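Technical note accompanying the year-one report. For the benefit of new consortium partners, we illustrate the data format agreed upon in the data management plan: each record pairs a sequence with a structure-token string. No post-processing was applied to the example shown here.
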Amino acid sequence: RYAPNHWVPQIALGEVHHDAGHHAEAVAAFTRSMTLNPQEPATHTKLGVCLIETGQLAEAEVVPLIGEREP
């Protein structure tokens, strides 16, 4: 069963899209996963890598780092 409100299926969906070259869909899934569980470092990493691979460097720079403190 698909669980749209749980981060694990979203990160898995992002990986499938990324591997298939569907980068916009991968970014959307990784972003959703990060929203659902902002403390999971793998999601931040996968989102950042996907953004870098697609030349979205400015967007990749603002992906929050785990443990980063707010100013």
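Partners are asked to follow this layout when depositing records. The chain has four helices and no strands.
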